[in-house]
Design goal:
- The protein is an alpha/beta fold.
- The protein has 2 domains: about 170 residues, Medium-chain alcohol dehydrogenases, catalytic domain (Quinone Oxidoreductase, Chain A, domain 1, Alpha-Beta Complex); about 120 residues, Rossmann fold, CATH 3.40.50.720.
- It is built from 10 helices and 15 strands.
- The longest helix has 13 residues.
- The protein is globular and about 60 Å long.
């Protein structure tokens, strides 16, 4: 295989993204060639592609498909295996070389569309929730709970035995948060309504701005706030004295690419897939479209026209 159709950044193309024939590099011994069947989009990669990436950059993190050629070192699944995978770039293509430590096999009852939503959103939710160990019986606050990560985090936390409070910005999103398992839901930009259910042993914060400052007031002694997104703003003000006097509380900056070297994606993906297969996790897919519609869908996601996950089929 010398070339593959792949998404590339092109400022002159409609929507700044185009599908073009692109060179396909021979896989490393530890990489399998995957024929891609579905991809999902994440706001972070879309934002980079539309606003910062250089011309010709090939974006894409999440993919699901079938192993076309097994890794030469025999470290991964054999040819013909249905898989979900994760890449730092280049997943938005008809085929991709994926390290076997970032692949997990799929049972027949997990669709490619469901699986494609799991790598970035699912691993972020799973690993964020585990930053402080077991959460059985603990109080967990999840902001941005109607988003791709937040929705999965609510469901995983509820299944793990936590008391879950979800924060959503719009009233119409309350139903989704409750369906995912939230015990309580607070609505709007103001987190003050969440105070009566706290303090919280773990807070997953994805909004930033004023939301982060408010969340830090709700943290319990020795607890942690995991910040994995800043959708509303990258700067915040918070009461430093109150946070300090809480005692032992911490703010953890979560970047999945920083976590992966210490917690291989394949292990987390296998756990997430098992949850989906057994009906314990239900990926929220808001939009499904064809691969050729990548520019339109990416721009819709970037402009907040999609709250959940967008999946494209190849």
């Amino acid at each position: 295989m010398e070339q593959v159709r792949a998404v590339v950044v092109d400022p002159n193309a409609p929507g700044k993204l185009a599908i073009r024939p692109s060179p396909f590099r021979a896989p490393l011994p530890s990489q399998a060639i995957v024929r891609v069947k579905a991809i999902s989009l994440n706001l972070g990669e879309v934002r980079r592609s539309l606003t910062m990436a250089e011309v010709g950059f090939r974006p894409g993190w999440d993919l699901a498909g079938v192993v076309e050629q097994a890794a030469a070192d025999r470290s991964g699944p054999p040819a013909g295996t249905r898989v979900v995978g994760f890449l730092p770039a280049g997943a938005w293509a008809e085929a991709a070389a994926v390290p076997t430590n970032a692949l997990a096999a799929l049972p027949d009852n997990v669709s490619f569309a469901q699986a494609s939503t799991l790598p970035v959103a699912g691993l972020t939710a799973l690993y964020s929730l585990e930053q402080r160990g077991a959460i059985v019986g603990r109080r967990v606050l999840i902001t941005g709970a109607s988003g791709g990560v937040g929705h999965l985090a609510v469901e995983i936390a509820r299944n793990a035995g936590a008391f879950v409070v979800a924060s959503v910005r719009r009233p119409e999103r309350e139903r989704l948060a409750r369906a995912a398992g939230a015990h309580e839901v607070v609505i709007g930009e103001d987190l003050s309504a969440a105070a009566k259910f706290g303090p919280y042993d773990l807070i997953l914060e994805s909004v930033g701005g004023a939301s982060l400052g408010a969340a830090l007031k709700l943290i319990a002694p020795g607890a942690m706030c995991v910040l994995y997104g800043v959708s509303a703003g990258s700067e915040t003000r918070f009461d430093a004295a109150t946070f300090m006097r809480t005692g032992g509380a911490s703010l953890y900056g979560f970047i999945l690419f920083h976590e992966i070297p210490f917690r291989p994606a394949a292990q987390g993906l296998a756990r997430l897939v098992a949850m989906v297969a057994t009906g314990k996790l239900h990926p929220q897919i808001e939009l499904e479209a064809k691969f050729d519609e990548i520019a339109e869908v990416a721009n819709k996601l970037y402009n907040r026209g999609i709250a959940g996950k967008a999946v494209l089929h190849l």
